[in-house]
Amino acid sequence: MTIYCNNQGAIKTVKSNKTTFNTCTKHLDLHKDFVQCYIQNNYIDVHYVQTENQAADILTKALHVLQIKHLINLIELSL
């Protein structure tokens, strides 16, 4: 399964083998290990996608009409 994420920091965190965390990321330790296990076993693959091409935003955010039309075309949805 491929997961597309527009947060480069999150992608680097789960793909990194660093064990050191700062005060902002130390609470992610368990979740990071869980995701890293799935990445290492090739169950999931995490890729960066630009914010304007994040298809999930059509379901989660209030967007401008032009952005909605762009995302509808991106996911090949017909109305």
Key traits:
79 residues, mainly alpha, elongated
Order of helices and strands: EHHEHH
Rg, Å, rounded: 16 Å
The shape is: elongated
Which stretches are poorly predicted, pLDDT < 50 over at least 5 residues?
none
Number of separate strands: 2
Tally of separate helices? 4
Helix content: 40-55%
Question: Structural class per helix/strand content?
Answer: mainly alpha
The average pLDDT value, as a whole number, equals: 84
Q: Sheet bearing the most strands, described?
A: 2 strands, parallel
Distance between the termini: 27 Å
- Strand residue percentage: 5-15%
Widest beta sheet: strand line-up: 1-2
Provide the fold topology:
Blueprint: E1 2-5, H1 8-15, H2 29-40, E2 45-48, H3 57-60, H4 65-74
Verbal overview:
- The mean pLDDT is 84.
- By secondary structure, the chain is mostly helical.
- The protein has helices at 8-15, 29-40, 57-60, 65-74; strands spanning 2-5, 45-48.
- The longest helix is centred in the middle third of the chain and has 12 residues, at 29-40.
- 43% of the residues lie in helices and 10% in strands.
- It has 4 helices and 2 strands.
